[in-house]
User: Fold this.
Amino acid sequence: MTTSPRDDDRLRAEAIAILRENDLGAYTIPTKGLYPFQWNWDSCLVALGLARIDEDRAFREIETLFAHQWEDGFVPHIVFHADAQSYFPGPDVWDTRRATPTSGITQPPVAGFCLRRLYETASDREAAAARTKALLPRIAAWHRWFHATRDPEATGLVAILHPWESGRDNSMDWDEALARVSPEGVGEYVRRDTSHVDAAQRPTKAEYDRYLRLVQIFRGLGWDHGALHEASPFKVVDPGFNAILIRSAEDLAALAEALDEPAIAEEAARHAAAGRAALEGLWHEGLGQYACFDRAAGALVESASIGGLLPLFALEPGHARAAVLAKRIETVCARARHPVPSHDPADPRFDRLRYWRGPLWLVANRMILDGLARHGHVDAATAIARDGLALVARRGFAEYFDPLDGRPLGGGRFSWTAAMVLEFLD
Ligand code: 9WN
Assistant:
């Protein structure tokens, strides 16, 4: 599918309008109603779009997120800046006791990757250097927090302790590990998401029960991050999440080099190298791609999700796995009409409508196409960007899309979809 120059102008104007209407001054909400707060990786990726409208505002988006970093280095997945009743679970459920309430779990650390792009494309070089330099120690502290609290045995790879941390909430990757979390005692609650979006496009009640049960367990430990890894019944090493951390460490090291912060550069380069070396242990020969490692069960997970394709975004150019992975992405995409399905359509569990169990997401595509371009597959990368633009031109700025017929799914007028459109129009 392609777009015309007129489509492109219309897309650009509409993307900017959406980013403006979801802009609450110092942060951007993902979409009205469904997600009325600041989300971690949404904000960093949205900053890429904001940078094309207003550089100052783009930096502000990331600065606002890091203004709510905890003293231990942790950066929350949600910052509850203002009251809103349209989302569950809200601040009272998390009960983290912060001055501005936040959640107690984190999200994929794309900040380093996004900040490098902001810095390198900024036209006001002096302002960009000063603001980037101020953020470097904060991102370094977050990465250090990951290695200390989520990799206590120094394997080089970090675990997520909640499916929401992955950003790919209901992926098949978590099915077995989540099934081992007993929902007993979770109590009654009222979901809000299914009053905004068709329940067939959202996680199930059985999943929500366990999502909440994990929150209750962590809350019971007073959100002491040093204690959660040991106590959590759910700990999974996700190749996608780790690829993002490794790539952000690489980008953090490059920024720190450029801005004369040698200690940060050295530490970040060390983290990236350790992660890359350990990634090899997540290669699943049978699936022909990377797979999650269930740290509680001690086994690789039989699940061919997009998480196992994301390492292309982090492997060094020339890495032996890169060509195999690029081919694998081609194979998975050939099984759908629109790239990149969040799960291999050949898997009987593939569900074209249900959130991260099949639908395509432009933010994931952004990272996949970056990986393809990084390893020399420029045409394949361009084809993914073009398809995304054509999809939005025809179906609107949806949260995610059916990869078989392009139907728009989830929330509408979505900030990160708008930001990715601005990225793909480049
Ligand atoms: C839980 C905001 C977030 C994204 C996630 C996406 C979804 C939240 C939810 O929405 O998750 O964090 O309630 O479903 O899965 O990637 O950051 O857009």
About this structure: The pocket of 9WN is lined by residues 30, 35, 39, 41-42, 77, 164, 167, 169, 193 (CB under 6 Å).
